Amino acid sequence: MHTLTDLDGHALPRSSTLPLVDVVILTWNDGEMLDAAIASALGAEGVDVNVIVVDNGSSPPAVVPDDPRLRLIRNEANLGVAPARNQGVRAGTAPIVCLLDSDARLHAGTLRALHDQLDHGAALISPVFDGQAPEASGGRAPGVLRKASRAIGLTDSYGSTRPDGRPPTWDVDFTIGACQLVRRQAFDQIGGLDSSIFYGPEDVDFCLRLKNAGWRISQTEAASCHHPPRRRNRKLLTRRGLSHAVAVLKHLRRHRRAGGDARTTARLG
Question: Is the pLDDT of residue 40 over 50?
Answer without folding.
Answer: yes
